[in-house]
Amino acid sequence: MEQIENIQTVTSHLDKVQVKTGRLAIVIPVYQEGNHIRASIGEIRRILIEHCIDYEFILVDDGSTDNTWEQLAALACENKNITALRLTRNFGKEAAVCAGLEYADTEVLLVMDSDLQHPPELIPEMYRYWQEGYEVVEGIKSDRGKEGVFYKFCSEIFYRFLSKTSSIDLKNASDFKLLDKKVIEAWKRMPERTTFFRGMAAWVGFLRKQLAFEVRNRTTGQSKWSFLRLLKLAVGAMTSYTTVPLHFITIMGFIMFLLFLILGGQTLYMKLSGQALDGFTTVILLLLIIGSSVMISLGIIGIYLSKIYHEVKGRPRYLIADGIREGEKIC
Q1: Helix (H) or strand (E) holding 169
Q2: At what angle do helices 68-78 and 37-50 cross, to 10 degrees?
Q3: Average pLDDT value for residue range 98-105
Q4: What share of the chain in percent tops pLDDT 70?
Q5: pLDDT value of position 84
Q6: What's the CATH number for 23-237+316-329?
Q7: In a 3-state reduction of DSSP, which class is residue 196?
Q8: pTM of the prediction?
Q9: Strand, helix or coil at 59?
Q10: Which of 15, 61, 252, 305 is the most buried (most CB within 10 A)?
Q11: C-alpha pair distances (Å), 189 with each of 96, 163, 192, 197, 285
Q12: What is the DSSP string of 83-119?
């Protein structure tokens, strides 16, 4: 009798728990990946089908110059669950992710890379956490793979600086994220033209769950992220989420004023006491310090002004040249 009551209690509790269900849209930005994109999509599809997850792919070609678009178009014609979009030119990964997010219309969405460095085996677990009520399930890098020591050092400095100077913590964060529809709607209300998906997804908040993963080696080819592109992304991210660099200018001004008081007092003392020596060493050093400080300060101000310049122009984040869904052109 007691067991029957326990079973009834558990059954009643399960009835109250509403497990979410919905189609999962997988957004993948693609650039110069024509030689392996078909194999990557096949691997992800196999895992989704094994776990009976209703899915659709949104593949965004970011202006590739190889055969990437031909491969995506063929995939979209062969499978009704695949939509292929082609941007008019290479707008960058962030813009391609924007295109996928804005096109999707599902209850839940996942962003991942096309080279399988984000392990697709984690998708069923991420989807399960979403069903349990989490609104953001994000992949956190437990290991950065074969990145060089210099890259790891720069990444550590960047994430520490961003964490200390802004309200978001992106340490070991990645673009491998599963987002609930309400998160995507919040993301769409952010109007900036220069986007940083990782930071924007962290800024919106919501109930979150982190899953650690090791960055795999690429299935083939080389990374398209050169040091300069990573540096540009880092500068864009820092100036999007913190104004601390601007305050550095004020701090430098106070430091220079303090040095002026010390050196000015010493110079006057030497002059009045008749101990002043001929020479320009001190003058040259001062000019170099002041000159470099002024140039760095102008550069920091220039970066912020350029961001304002790009924002006020109000140009679209991207333009779509072609789109194929279920074998038919949609734009």
Answers
A1: none
A2: 30
A3: 89
A4: 85
A5: 92
A6: 3.90.550.10
A7: coil
A8: 0.68
A9: strand
A10: 61
A11: 17, 24, 9, 13, 50
A12: EEEEESS---HHHHHHHHHHH--SSEEEE--TTS-S-
